[in-house]
Structures are given as structure tokens and as C-alpha cells.
Amino acid sequence: MSSVRFGVNYTPTHGWFHHWLDFDLDEVHADLDSIGRLGLDHIRVFPVWPVFQPNRALIRPRAVEQLVRLVDTAAEHGLDVNVDGLQGHLSSFDFVPSWTTTWHRRNLFTDPAVAEGQAEYLRTLAEALADRPNFLGMTVGNEVNQFSAAPHPDPDPVTHEQAADWLRRMLDACERGAPGRCHLHASYDAAWYHDGHPFTPAHSARLGAMTAVHSWVFNGTAQRHGATGAATEQHAAYLVELSKAWADRPDRPVWLQEVGAPAPHIPPERAAAFTEATVANALDCPAVWGVTWWCSHDVDRALADFPELEYGLGLLTNDREVKPAGRAIARIVREQRGREHQPTPRRTALVLDVDDAYGAPDRSGCAPGGEYFEAWMRLAAQGLRPAVVLAERAADAGHLADRGITEVVTVSQTLKGAGR
Asked: Does one domain contain both 178 and 295?
């Protein structure tokens, strides 16, 4: 077993992600130095898609060069780098190129020309970084599933079969560019919680080198359970365990790729305690590859129109001063450095029935307030460390043994206090 990786999603202090328009390597150095001082070992970075590929046939060499320079600079600060390709969606703003919108409106997932352009873009970025030792690999994009269905105001409809085909094509493009690196994709929690959403749990847990989960308690969890509730502090762990129900093998790595302490749902004075509890609970899950906090630095309040909670999510201020949550992460990193990640198996599994495991049409019970979510959290609040098992696998002795599960309980049994 290896140690858990600890990192942060890099939000530049100078211009936020618009820094690609006025790229300043000195500012990047200063930002990465402040990140490195927390003891973190990796960052996740976000090229802005329309800046890098303003025309379907033009991937700007200078932009790609700037990305390579950022990755090289990260190496100087002892940081590995994962690169998200299709941005896509960032902190409530959508960034899609003009060749997919208005007069050129084309479906992001099903139009052949768009898919060809996307694949070439991802391949180009991966190839440019393929020889960098600190390049971890590509993430296809940041929560691109939000473009595929409501509540997006202008969605690009796609079936779950088409979504799978698109994901495979994008992942294959990353692999062609940088063979053997860790290429994956990432969805926001509609993939786990929304009935009929075209990006499914099976996509997340079976495609790509590992599973990514993004944990945000402003999704109804904190509103329902409060800032100190067990469900709020266990939400990230729940998503990690939920993802394992669909995995084809028990040792598939799970990356907690985004998790943060959003105010006012988590009051600033509770941010450090929430951070410590969230990470501790996540580390109690087997097969966790890493924890990557959102985000590195607060958003500059000179920038307009962000939702209020987005401004203060950093581990550091916009002046690069460490905040309480940053100090908490630094303590955790010191304590975990060199320690093998080998928590005991979760012996009790709660049965999950989503009707059809691949399409998962009945996912809403997994969401905050849903019958399954609340049952799992009841077990967790009792200290029972529940796993998740799909109904189709609940009687599969080999599957249960591979995961170390010795007891299977149903949602109705949790209402009677069953499970040990």
C-alpha cells in the first residue's frame, strides 16, 4: 500500500483563471511557493478551453507553451500536476469556445466535428507534457457533465450510451498523447444523485485510470444536517464508498478530487474543524488515492459576479497568507507523511437498489434527504463504517469476500437499528 497524496486545486491569485490571458511566471512562482509551504505534493490546473483552442482548427502554441512552463515551475516547487482539459465549467462560469455556440451551436457530446476538435485538443496538451516527470496525467474536464442536462440553462442532450462513447474517445485521446499516465474524468454529483442523468455512476467508477469524486455539502447536506452534523462531515467519505459499489475491482483507486468548506454552510470559524473531520473520514475509506482541496487561494474580490461562497474557499488568502483550514491541511500532511494508507475493510454494507446498475435510473435516493443517503448516514453516526453494495451484488459471496464485507443490511433494517 502507498501513502495518500495531498494536493490542492490551483486558483491563481493574479487574475484567477483569466491569468492565461496575462500569463506571469513570477506570479505563478509565488503562488506555487505558498502552496509548497503547506507540504502538499500536487496541484490540479485548469487551462481555459476557449483561450487554448479559440478555433476548432487552432490550438494556440503559445498557450500550450505556457502550460508546459507552469508544469515545469511546479516541479521546481516539488509539485506534481494533473491537468484538466475542457474548461468547461469553473466556479459557476461556463467557458466554451465560440465554435460551439450561437451561430455555430453544436452539441458538445454528439457532434462529430466538435468531438474531433476536443480529442485533438486533449491529445495535444497530453503530448506536450508527456516527457515531464511531474505530469500525473489528464482529467478530461472539470464537471463537464453539468452541460448535459438540467439544471443547466442550455444543455447539450446526450444518452448515457453516448456519454460513455464520448468519455472513451476523450480518454483514448489523452492516452495517445501521453501513454501510460493516469488519465481520468470527473463529474459533479448529479452523476450520483440525479435520476436519469446521462453521466452515470458506472461511467465514473469504470472508465479511466481511477474514480474521481467531488464533494460539496452545499448540495443540501449541510442545509439538512447542519455544519457539525455527522452527514456533513461524512459526505466525502460517503461519495468515496458510494463509488465503490460500481467499481469492477475492490482496489480501484478513488481520488477525492474536489472538497471544500463553503461558507455560510460551513461558518469560517468551523472551517478548520470541518477540514480535519472530512479528511479523517475520507482516510478511513480503503483505496483512496488522494485528497485535493478546493482551492489554493481565495478569489480576488476585485473580480465581479462570483457567487459569494466562491470568494473564500482558499487554503490561503489572495495575499498568500495561510488560513485556518490551510493550517489544518498542513498538520494533516505532516502527520500522514510516509504513513501507509491501509484502513481496515468496511465489514457492514448497506444494499443499494437503483433498478439498473449501469443506467442507474433511480439515483435520487442516494442524494441528501433521500432514503438511502439518510440510512447510510444513520449507520455512520453509530460508528459502523458502512460500505455500499449494489442489490445485484448483495448475494455474490465472491464479491463480498473480495471487499471484506461480512454483513449486508437493508435500508428498512436501519430503521430498526440493525447492523453491527
From this structure: yes
